[in-house]
Amino acid sequence: MDNYKLNPLTVDVIIEENESILMIRRESDTFNDYLALPGGFVDFGEMVEQAAIREAKEELGIDVIPLSILGVYSGDKRDPRGPTVSVVFICSYKGKIIAGDDASSFEWLELKNIEKSELAFDHKKIIQDYYSWKLNRDTHWTSK
What is the pLDDT of residue 21? Predict the structure, then answer.
């Protein structure tokens, strides 16, 4: 087992309301003050769905319901800290949104403004793929 390096597994959450995507403003060493999708690392032994629910609760104080998987994104250029793999969930939510954990604030980013926005990680590509998903319900992955 010493010859193997494990890729950190992460989740990201897409919540849309009124043609806008719910984003957090990161309060972190990585992409500090950038907008990002809610999400984070999967804990050891945790199912990815549970991680998406937990991360949304920690970062935004809301309960999310995973509805579908947009896709899986991987690669060594996604995160400056090293290679990561992210399972991206499309979710609905309940509750009052309150920024917490590593989110300094939140905002609803209008879909029409995504192209001109500077987003953390590869989240702009993920949201672009979400547009396609809305039309075709097709699954996405890094090289597709």
Answer: 97
